[in-house]
Structures are given as structure tokens and as C-alpha cells.
Design brief:
Structural class of chain A: alpha+beta
Distance between the termini of chain B: 37 Å
Number of strands of chain B: 7
Largest sheet of chain B: 4 strands, antiparallel
Distance between the termini of chain A: 21 Å
Bound molecules: flavin-adenine dinucleotide
CATH topology of the largest domain in chain B: Butyryl-CoA Dehydrogenase, subunit A, domain 2
Strand content of chain B: 15-25%
Radius of gyration of chain A: 20 Å
Mean pLDDT of chain B: 92
CATH superfamily of the largest domain in chain A: Acyl-CoA dehydrogenase/oxidase, N-terminal domain
Oligomer: heterodimer
Shape of chain B: globular
CATH class of the largest domain in chain B: Mainly Beta
Strand order of the largest sheet of chain A: 1-3-4-7
Helix content of chain A: 40-55%
Number of domains of chain A: 2
Number of helices of chain A: 12
Low-confidence stretches of chain B: 7-11
CATH topology of the largest domain in chain A: Butyryl-Coa Dehydrogenase, subunit A, domain 1
Low-confidence stretches of chain A: 340-349
Helix content of chain B: 40-55%
Mean pLDDT of chain A: 93
CATH superfamily of the largest domain in chain B: Butyryl-CoA Dehydrogenase, subunit A, domain 2
Largest interface: A-B, 50 and 50 residues
Strand content of chain A: 5-15%
Structural class of chain B: alpha+beta
Radius of gyration of chain B: 20 Å
Order of helices and strands of chain A: HHHHHHEEEEEEEHEEHHHHH
Shape of chain A: globular
Largest sheet of chain A: 4 strands, mixed
Number of domains of chain B: 2
Strand order of the largest sheet of chain B: 2-3-7-6
CATH architecture of the largest domain in chain B: Beta Barrel
Number of helices of chain B: 9
Amino acid sequence: MDFSFSPEQRELQAQARSFLEARFPLSRLAQLIDSEPGWDPSSWTELAELGWLGVSVPESLGGAGLGFVEEAILLEEFGRCLYPGPYLATVAMALPALDDARLAEVANGKARWSALLGPAPDLVPDLNRVDWVVVASEDQVLAVEATGEMLTSIDPTRPMGRLDQVSGELLGKGQEAVRIGRLMRERLLTALALEAVGGAQRVLELSLEHARSREQFGKPIGIYQAVSHPLVDCYVEIELARSLAYWAAWCIGAGHEDASLAASAAKAAAAGAAVRACERAIQTHGGLGFTWESPLHRYYKRALWIERFGGTSAEHRSRVAETLLQRPPTAAAASASGAAVLPEAGAGG
Amino acid sequence: MLEELARANAPQHIGVIGLGMAGPTIIAHGTEAQKSRYLPSILSAGEIWCQGFSEPGSGSDLASVRTRAELRGDTFVLNGQKVWSSYAQIADWCILLVQSDPGAARYQGLTFLLVDMHSPGIEVRPLRQITGDADFNEIFFTDTEVPKAQVLGGIGQGWAVAMTTLLHERATFGFSLTGALEAALGQLLRLAQDQPAQAARLTDAIGREWIQMQALKLTAHRALAQLAASGRPGPEGSIIKLAWSESNQRVTKLARELLPDPILDDGHWYYLQLRSRANSIEAGTSEILRNIIAERVLGLPRSR
Ligand SMILES: Cc1cc2nc3c(=O)[nH]c(=O)nc-3n(C[C@H](O)[C@H](O)[C@H](O)COP(=O)(O)OP(=O)(O)OC[C@H]3O[C@@H](n4cnc5c(N)ncnc54)[C@H](O)[C@@H]3O)c2cc1C
């Protein structure tokens, strides 16, 4: 039950799945996260060689010249394997602010970026894993050196820090700053939704495997409706969130006016779906689910981080409602792009 | 088309059982003669259909139906009772699931018949619903004669044929009702615009319902792509029906929160709220749909 991705897009998805499963299996993940520096910096070179850092960077600058739909495919897969590294920060957040020279440095893996959107909160994800931070405010966008104090994040795979200072080279101002800020925000929210969907799907699969194989009272526990029905509800929630996340990705790729609405909708739905899928997974696994050994707490912590970062689900739901209520009465419920998405999703970019 | 009708706030289409269930089942299992006899009048809504599956003793456990069809020469003789049959009071035809071989193993003694509702020996008694309407009925069969040529898909093949109907029923629900949900959301937003004070307290809930509607609509289109590719609705249709029914129940409740005097019957939302309680019962209860998704989509062990 997938969008009609093009054959090339499906190939990218399959390639990402098999690469990430081989390089970042759950067994390696725990050891990686629990040791210094908490991620594998050499993996960044591999991502550059695969062309995944420059997916939407023009070919003339060393990128692949594709669009956000392709980046979305990768973001879902990174979320699925819980990749600890500044991919979301660099690609989803910072890219729209960068000039040609800086884009080329991202594509070839020389520079990693994070970003700070708006005045508050002032916490930068992956601050100690990147070289630069885009600091975007209402009237200007700056490139600031990534130095500052690290704090303890609720998700160890997403360390958070506070910048020492916020001065640096100007990347854009005035209307351009507004445009960059909006695009960064839409891309961030959609990327968070995609990561959430990818992670939630993996956690649901772990729950299903356990429900099929673990026996109690002489039967696999998945036979009991008190076990199976909540998993069905998680599955339904994930499928619905995935539809929204793909819609938002398509809107961004196509530069559609619904992008901001779609991104908020997708973020709200996917973050909630991921938190609930993780909580349900811990419950389904019983005592095993509560152990440090189990990968479930890693996914849970990521989901909780996604739920907080960039605004909570409740804030985004209210934002969606306020946007709709400001529209003229007849147009209020309909989104301009909702029904048109599917046939074009494959071609979108 | 059903989505368009529903979006236009059309009242539930009385041809819905013909178009959404009888038609697709006849296309899948009918002889050429059956197709040319029934399909044109289904499309033109010249003849109304009803569905006679449920019985007093057989609801979720549909394979246990007991309405008896005894073959005498070239004629089936029917005796028994159906219940909850929507529009039977005005129907010309019925898709009927009957027991034709009581000695056979479960699933194997069932036959699917196309029954003329004007035949002698059929009595229809309307049943009043919690809304006050009487849209569904009991149907009693007493020595009702149905020619053997009215079998759809072969004697003893009724279960497979009925499964086709149910898959289409849930898919039909999915498409027509996500359209209806979008229309309901439009009305709810207009109501909220008229009641800004109430609306300001409820933005979280309003946003949630719109997002859910949009997700259902997008997912229905994804399922449609699947239908176009395989020619058969996948069990994924059950997802939409399950999530839609709960959405519609919450939306109609939320709309009443926005009314100036929710203790009064406003003649619209209150009716819809009451009607929505059937959504998680009709066309497969939510519990049965969760069983189906658990077993067929998620590969969990069978509970029955
Ligand atoms: C408005 C409306 C219109 C309808 N129209 C038609 C129609 O046109 N034609 C027709 O044939 N039927 C029609 N129905 C009937 C409908 O299909 C049945 O009501 C439905 O299948 C449930 O059967 P039941 O009422 O016998 O409830 P039961 O099957 O007795 O179920 C009672 C409760 O037990 C639960 N339950 C049952 N089995 C299980 C299980 N294995 N696991 C967990 N929970 C279980 C159910 O989910 C439900 O909550 C209509 C119903 C309604 C409300």
C-alpha cells in the first residue's frame, strides 16, 4: 500500500533500506550510541559517496539535482534505522539557507550543518556534530560557527546544545530571510514526520514479531485481542500519518501553497503515532520491553524528542485549525492539493 | 463518483447497495446473462437493491446463517429470517446469503441468491432506529420460490461470493464516506467561524479532526491506486472504514460542542451524532475489522 513512487524512487528506497540495515543493524546501534562520540563520523563520508547528502543539490555543484520527495524517502529510512548523525539537521533544516559554495561543501561531505529557527527555544540539535549553524530570524539568516555548551537531550541520538554567540556571515535578509525561514520550517516538520513514520513502522514490526512468537497460556500472545487490537490501532495510525507525510513532502517538492499546512498536519499526526507505537511496543514486549538491551527505548526516546522538537502535536493541531478558520467559509475544509497528490507523487520532485 | 456525491452533501444514495455491493459482486461472479440483466438498472438506479446477510442468530459470525434454501427441481424454496436489512422496505432485489446444505462443513453449504423482493412469501417489517428513522428491516421468507438461475457464482460457493461483497462494501464505505466526512468538516468549520468564542477553546480538537479527515482522504486514494493495480480492493479498505467510523463519531460530537445551546436538539448535528453510532457496527463491527486487519494484514495468529 504505497504511493505510486517512480521505479527510480523505489530503487532509492530499496538501496537505502539495505545499506542502512547492513551498516546500522539494531545490534550495532546500542554500542554506537552508548560510546563516545555517540555516532560514526566515518559514515558521513559514505553518505557523501552514495550521493545522499546532495540529493537536492544541483548537479553543477556535485549533487544529484533531485528534489525533496527523494530526500523524504531517505529521511523515512534514516528514521527507521534510528541513524545517529546530523542528516536531518544538515539536509532537512539547513540546505535552503546555503549559497552555491556551501551547498557544494555539503554535497561532498566537507561541511555539516545544523540550524536554529526563530528566537525560542535556543537549542541546536547535533551542535557538537556539525561545523556550522544556520541561525534564522524574522529579518536575517546567519551562518554561525558551531561552538557552545552541550546539554543532556531526552534523546541521546539527538544531542542538543546552546550556541556561545549568534554572530556570523549574512546568508539572507528581508523577504529572502522570510522565504528561507518558512522553507526550513516546512522541511523540518515534514522530515520529523517522515523519521517518526519510519521509526514507528520498525517498532510495530518488532511488536508483531514478538506477538507471533512469544507464547503464554499455550498460545502465541498475538491471538489475544487485548494484544492484537491495540497493535492494529498503531498500524492504522502509522498508515494515516504516512499518507500525510508523503503529501507534505510532495507539497514541498512542488512548491505548493498547502506545504505549511501539510507539514504541520503531518508532524502532529506522525509524532503522536510514533510515541503511541513505542509505548504499545514496550507493553507488548512485557519485561523485555523495559530492558536497556531492548532497542525499544531508543526509538521511544527519539519519538519523544520528535514530539517536542519544532512544536508539539497539540500546537500544530491548533495551528492547522487557526489556518483553516481564517479561510473563506466555502473553502475552509478543502485543501487545494489533497486529492491531486497521488497521481503526481511519482513525478514530483 | 460516490465521493463526489457525498461531498455535495447528497443524502445517502438509495442506490448505494446496488452500486457499491450488488453490482461489483455480479461483475465478479455473474454469468453474461446476469450481467446484462442487472447492471444497466443498477447504474441508472432504476431498481433498488438490499442486502440480506445478517440474521437474528448470525451477525459478526456471518458463516452461521440459517435461512434455509431447499432445491426442489429447478427451484429453491426459502424459509427463514433476515434482519437489519437497509432499504428492504423499498427494494426490488435482494442479495441474499442462504444455507443450501445444512450437512456441509462450515463455509461450504452457503449459496448466494439474487432474489426478487416482489416474490410471493416475502414479508418486510421496518425496525425503528435510535434516530427515530426506520431505514432497516426484518425480512421473513415463507416458502418463497426462487429459480435456480438466480444463483450467483454456483451452489455451495456463497461464502466466496459474499466475501467479494464485503470487500466492496468496506471499500465503498471508505470512498463515499471520506467524501461525506470532508463535507461534515466543512460544515463544522463554518459553525466554528460563526461561534468564535467556542471555537477558540477547541482548536486542538478541530485541528485533530481535520488532519484525520485529510489523512483518510489521502489514504483512500492510496487504496484506490492499489485497487486500480490489482482490480480487487485489498484488506486495506478495512483500515479506512475502521478509522472513518471513529472519526465521524468524534466529528459529530465535536460539532455539538460548538452549538450555542447543545442541550437542545438542533435537528442536524444531533441526528448525525446519533446516526454515527451505527458506523462502528454496520458493514462489519470495529472489533471484527480489527480482527481482520490483525490476521490478514499484520499476519497475527487467527483468534477463531
Ligand atoms: C444501520 C445498520 C444498517 C445495517 N444494514 C444491514 C444490511 O443492509 N444488511 C445486512 O445484512 N446487515 C445490515 N446490518 C447488520 C450489521 O452487519 C450487523 O449488525 C453487524 O455485522 C453486527 O452483527 P450483530 O448486530 O449481530 O452483532 P454481534 O455480532 O452479536 O456483535 C455484538 C458485539 O460483539 C462483538 N463481537 C462479536 N464477535 C466478536 C469477536 N469475534 N471478537 C470481538 N468482538 C466480537 C461485536 O463487535 C459487537 O460489539 C446493519 C446494521 C446497522 C447498525
